[in-house]
Amino acid sequence: MKTSFQTLLSTRRAAALKCALFLVLGCATFAQTALAKVLGTVKSVSGNSIVLTTDSGVEVTLTVTGATRVVQATPGQTDLKTASAIQLSDIHIGDRVLALGPSGEGNSVAASTVIVMKQSDIAQKHQQEREEWRKGAGGIVKQINPTAGTITIANALASSRKPIVIHISPATNIRRYSPDSVNFDEAKPGTLDQIKPGDQLRTRGTKNDDGSEFAAQAIVSGTFRNIAGTVISTDAANSSITVMDMLTKNPVTLKIGSDSQMHKLPPFVAQRLAAKLKGDASTASHPNAAPGEPSHSGPSDNSNGGEGQNAQGSWRKQAAGSADSSQAGERRANGSPDFQQMLSRMPTVAISDLQKGDAVMLVATEGSATSAPTAITLISGVEPIMSAAPSGASAASILSPWNLGSSPGGEATGE
Q1: Pairing mode of beta strands 59-63, 224-235
Q2: 387 and 246 in contact (C-beta within 8 Å)?
Q3: CATH 2.40.50.140 spans which residues of the chain?
Q4: Which of 194, 241, 310, 334 sits in a 20 to 30 Å window from 21, CA-based?
């Protein structure tokens, strides 16, 4: 999933920028009667004209005159008092522009005001948001208390497996996934009363020292399916797989879309997570070691076959990059490793790589009467994890912090 928080923001980014730019415009003094507002990305600049591509794909031509006010704003800016006046020559392809002015013939606007957000400033803002989502919290909703303004979530691998209490304020930005969407960018504005137990939730904001409480700046939630089971069949031609859900004991056919993320865990990573689910403190203290192995790794031959010690050591180093020290910025403040980052480093797999009987864990959309569920995140190589949690419930739930709010394009989501 380009969420995959690859993929924590195109549509969502556009909506956020639109809100910010409209707010800027709304704070200025304009006679808005019979004036058009156009928001889009600069396609070209020539002479006194700017061609924008709107978010709906329509091209609009702006005409700029000597009387046009052209200013540069920054993402999040709430008024134009500190906006810098710029020249038409300062506007470049890829910049975001909000224009106000009378409509002309065809898709044209005689711009009286042009507000510009530079592409580089937007990219920096997106990077900041990705980091905030990545360092946030995620899990399965256990309880909602509208009176207290709190949501309690469970995360099998964070906060020492204790519940995490999310505090909601009037300023919290609440968003909600649509039932058939696998794209974080398509989350819509939502309300607290839409969230229910069993939903998956991701939040960014400020956490306390042990990670058990979180003051939310933004949350995104959705009703998704956690499935742990074994592959019954695959259909690469129709981009689908059928899995026997070990919890419900029923087969489930799922679509694999272009945004679906599919990874395979190396054996030592799967063993590491299995030990975490079992509460194996000795293994949990060594993020690079599989059960029964030392925490350090050094040069060795490849005589064991399969991935080999060199390959395992390489994956350990990459996984350790997401579960190392706080100085490296890859370990959460509460001490739990950043599994979204770790998952992104795992090998990818295709439908054709999955075999009948393979153990898989996945998160999928609900689906509908006319549409099969679509996989958001699927991981194979999870036999040790499913052995550690034979009911399938806690095994599948460890994926919950890995998909919602995953950083786009990192795109994350998630964001």
Answers
A1: unpaired
A2: no
A3: 10-119
A4: 194
In the chain, CATH 2.40.50.320 sits at: 131-223
Report the top-level CATH class of 131-223: mainly beta
Transcribe 256-317 into DSSP letters.
EEEEEEEEE--HHHHHHHHHHHHT-HHHHT-TT--TTS-S------STT-TTHHHHHHHHHH
What span, in angstroms and rounded, lies between the C-alpha atoms of 278 and 178?
34
Report phi then psi at 409, rounded to 5: 70, 10
Closest CA to 274 of 393, 138, 389: 389
Question: Which residues does 149 contact at the CB level (< 8 Å), separation at least 6?
Answer: 167, 168, 169, 192
Give the three-class secondary structure for 222: strand
Rg (CA), the chain: 24
Number of helices followed by number of strands (H, E) in the chain: 9, 20
Pairing of strands 251-264, 374-380: parallel
H runs (alpha helix) in 176-245:
none
Helix 308-320 vs helix 267-278: crossing angle, to nearest 10:
50
Residue-wise pLDDT tens digits, 5-63: 444 444 445 555 554 554 444 444 444 446 889 999 999 999 999 999 998 899 999 99
> Bridge partners of 103?
109
Half-sphere exposure of residue 98, counting CA atoms within 13 Å on the CB side? 21
Count Cα neighbours of 205 within 13 Å in the Cβ-side half-sphere.
25
User: How far apart are the C-alpha atoms of 114 and 108, rounded to whole Å?
Assistant: 14
Angle at 38 between CA 219 and CA 107, to 5 degrees: 140
Distance CA 205, CA 211 (A): 11
- Structure tokens that stand for 21 in this block: 């730019």
Please indicate, yes or no, whether the overall pTM of this predicted structure exceeds 0.85: no
**Lowest mean pLDDT across 109-123, 152-166, 217-231, 342-356:** 152-166
| Closest to 332 in 3D by CA, of 127, 126, 136, 130 | 136
CATH of domain 10-119: 2.40.50.140
Which tops the pLDDT comparison, 137 or 217? 217
Give how far Cα 265 sits from Cα of 155, 347, 381, Å.
20, 7, 5
What does the pLDDT look like over 122-172, one tens digit per residue? 888 888 877 778 778 888 899 999 999 999 998 755 555 688 999 999 999
DSSP state of 351: G
φ, ψ at 37 (rounded to 5°):
-115, 130
